[in-house]
Amino acid sequence: MNKYWTQDLFGTCKPIIAMCHLMALPGDPGYDPACGMKQVVKAAREDLLALQDGGVDAVMFSNEFSLPYLTRVEAVTVAAMGRVIGELMDDIHVPFGVNVLWDPKASLDLAVAVDASFVREIFTGVYASDFGLWNTNVGETVRHQHRIGAQNVKLLFNIVPEAAKYLADRDIVSIARSTVFNNHPDALCVSGLTAGTQTSASTLRKVKDAVPDTVVFANTGVRLENLEEQLSIADGAVVGTTFKYDGRFENHIDRHRVKVFMDKVRDFRRNLE
Predict the structure, then answer these.
(1) Domain of 117?
(2) Which of 68, 133, 148, 169 has the fewest Cβ atoms within 10 Å of its own Cβ atom?
């Protein structure tokens, strides 16, 4: 496996993938039919432009406000996300990916429809979660990937699902090693308990040491004060909450916070040269 595919795709080492969290969509409990999809598109465009103006390396679109999440999403969710991204296509100037929470086949379907370069999902394992018993079938999912012509879509395997616990009595090192051996992921993502919660540096180190030839991302809670620690271990990071006004999950993107963060990231990268 080419450890440096991230360099080719994102044009830098230690890439920062910024989350563009979509507002609640049709069918979601929080959806506002009075404002409709035009407001969802408008808010997504404002966040996207703020992220890009701040200098992020890539963007990932997710239906973050579709709470509570489904492990098999309804068709309207994928359709709505496709509309949003389609309307934003002329404004997207960095590599981008998608994450339909939490349905890997739906994520791949959306990726093919909008020409996304990568998806992040829970592809493997069985979990007890806030969303009920959470099962997966990675063999079926990967075959679906090939059947729909998504072979070139990079798969980012989240191996520490948020709000869930692995049912088998297995440590994170064993999970990382067997996931890589059995599934050949393009990257592993290591998370905290929920969005915005710091990824444990010790857990991140264990995973990276266990699979040194696989790309490993810090998936949650990377902030200005811990980015050097996290990026000294991880091969990059997925960043969402810290880019928002006051660092609050429910807020929109603060362009200034993005710029300050990315300036520090670039300083960190220069010190690696």
Answers:
(1) 5-272
(2) 169
